[in-house]
Design brief:
This protein is of the alpha+beta class. It is 42% helix and 18% strand. It binds uridine-5'-diphosphate (UDP) and magnesium ion. Uridine-5'-diphosphate (UDP) binds next to loops.
Length: 160
């Protein structure tokens, strides 16, 4: 271990990103993965998955009292989703920026929602909102052996 690598390891975050059923149905999986991949984050988990009601409810438990909660649960369980874990320094906030505002009509052009969606209830992608939730959601959607620890060949060309 080189000292500068040890220091940066502490700053490495995990975020849980999910292409929602509308993104899968609309054929946007490759596009969405590509945007995160090109940015330079590291993919450590990836699967196509049919989410069941209990998992959707646990994932969105903070929104339980909201009026849109039942339709949100129906939406997330309405077809397969693509579950991902991405790692990197600052990945949580950066992925949220790449995703854009919750309401796609307010999301900036250049963001995933700004470019690819029109309605809050069909906003194609989820991203964790804090490093703590990144860890919580990763543990919720992935089992231990499903994540890969690896060093991308491009690592020295992304981080000095
Ligand atoms: N949502 C909705 N109506 C609303 C607010 C949110 O249908 O008025 C849905 C939408 O799919 C959103 C998800 O609930 O992505 C979670 O809401 P949150 O506020 O956490 O937005 P996000 O973190 O996804 O931007
Ligand atoms: Mg959220």
């Amino acid at each position: 271990f080189l000292p500068h690598l040890v220091a940066s390891l502490e700053q490495v975050e995990q975020t849980y990103i999910m292409v929602k059923p509308d993104g899968v149905q609309r054929g946007l999986v490759g596009e969405i993965i590509s945007r995160l991949e090109r940015k330079g984050f590291k993919l450590t988990g990836l699967k196509l998955f049919q989410c069941h009601k209990e998992l959707a409810e646990e994932h969105y438990k903070d929104l339980k009292t909201k009026s849109f909660y039942p339709t949100l649960i129906d939406y997330i369980t309405s077809g397969p989703v693509v579950c991902m874990v991405w790692e990197g320094v600052g990945v949580v906030a950066s992925a949220r920026k790449l995703i854009g505002s919750t309401n796609p009509l307010q999301a900036e052009p250049g963001t995933i929602r700004g470019d690819l969606a029109v309605q809050t209830g069909r906003n194609v992608v989820h991203g964790s909102d804090s490093p703590e939730n990144g860890k919580r959601e990763t543990a919720l959607w992935f089992k231990e052996g499903e994540l890969c620890e690896w060093t991308p060949a491009q690592a020295p060309w992304l981080m000095e």
